[in-house]
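Quick illustration, no need to memorize.
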Amino acid sequence: MLLRRLSLAFECESPEVDETPQPGESPADYVARLAYEKAAKVAANAANAIVIGSDQTAIFEGRVVGKPGDFKHAAGQLTAFSGRDVIFLTAVSVLNLNSGFAESYTDETVVSFRDLQTAEIERYLVKEEPYDCAGSFKAEAMGVVLFTKISSIDPTAIIGLPLIETAAMLRSAGLLLP
């Protein structure tokens, strides 16, 4: 959805990478490593292509928050987030093996949740079912009703890809973007 905004032809591929955090790895290093490894895995089979890899993680009270997987865990996450801030790190890597181009960037977005009532959390989860989303919401859809503000350099980062920096890296890699 986000890459379509750039009017480029592209293909999507979901590479299998081990997403286990390394011992002592910070959340920022973790998300940057995964974005790079995803891009590198795809690039290994497409040396001529400019490849984009990305990853996102949420941090709450100093701990990485995973995808909830189901209603119960999503409700627990949103209840904990009520009236609080959650940090989202979104990393992107752009690679081209033939030219040797490799750049990476990590955006930090702070999402401020409003005070949420149990009934509204339940209504939201039933309508949107964001069980495969870190933080239990979809900012590109109805999830914005849960917030008081989003603070970021790039408003698309919370959706999963910081387009401002991605476009800059693609231009550096040789693509013609306005």
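The chain has one domain: 3-172.
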